[in-house]
Amino acid sequence: MNRAAVLFAAGFATLLLSGTAIAADRSGSSASPSTAPAEKPSVMAIPHNVTGSVVSVDKSTNSVAIRDTKGKELTLVADRDTAAELTRLKPGDQVKATYKKSHDQLVMTKLSDAAAERRSSESTADEKSPYKSSSEKATGGEPKPPRAAPR
């Protein structure tokens, strides 16, 4: 019985010591930033949007800092698809970015020019309805004459 207890204690101590060695080995990752684009986030990650101005662009880490309309600054890391678009950005540009949270970083999945997007949405809103006003829509294209004031 005494011999079994000694063997059990020796095995348990071995497991404890090897567990801490493995954990220390995993946490010892390199501290230098990666120049490769970020890994694409999972399909299940929730997309977020931010509209604001570019504060800085760091092409060595494929990241861009954007200050949103509320004054909050976000640092987004470009994925493989959006990394090429960083070359056209400069501080002060107005952009709209879509990003997902993945592996403790914000990964940018889509980037567009906010001013151009606003202009295109205004022009498509005008093109959607063939009617200029609600009165023309109600009468089939002819505006209603104004009503006479009651006496």
Structure description:
By secondary structure, the protein is of the alpha+beta class. The protein has a domain at 47-116: OB fold (Dihydrolipoamide Acetyltransferase, E2P), CATH 2.40.50. The chain is 31% helix and 28% strand. The chain has three helices and five strands. Strands 1-2-3-5-4 form a five-stranded mixed beta barrel. β4 (94-102) and β5 form a beta hairpin. It starts with a helix and ends in a 12-residue tail after the last helix.
Please give a handful of descriptors for the protein shown.
5 strands, five-stranded mixed β-barrel, alpha+beta, OB fold (Dihydrolipoamide Acetyltransferase, E2P), 151 residues, 3 helices, 31% helix
CATH architectural name of the domain at 47-116: Beta Barrel
Strand content: 25-35%
User: Within the largest sheet, what's the order of strands?
Assistant: 1-2-3-5-4
Choose one word for the global shape.
elongated
- Report the C-alpha radius of gyration, rounded: 29 Å
So, the CATH homologous superfamily of the domain at 47-116?
Nucleic acid-binding proteins
CATH topology of the domain at 47-116: OB fold (Dihydrolipoamide Acetyltransferase, E2P)
Tell me about the biggest sheet?
A: 5 strands, mixed, barrel
Q: What is the residue-averaged pLDDT?
A: 76
Q: Note the quaternary state here.
A: single chain
> What is the helical fraction, as a range of percent?
25-40%
Distance between the terminal alpha carbons, to the nearest Å? Answer: 112 Å
- Structure summary, number of beta strands: 5
Q: Tell me the number of helical segments per DSSP (H or I, 4 or more residues long).
A: 3
Low-confidence stretches: 27-32
- The CATH class of the domain at 47-116: Mainly Beta
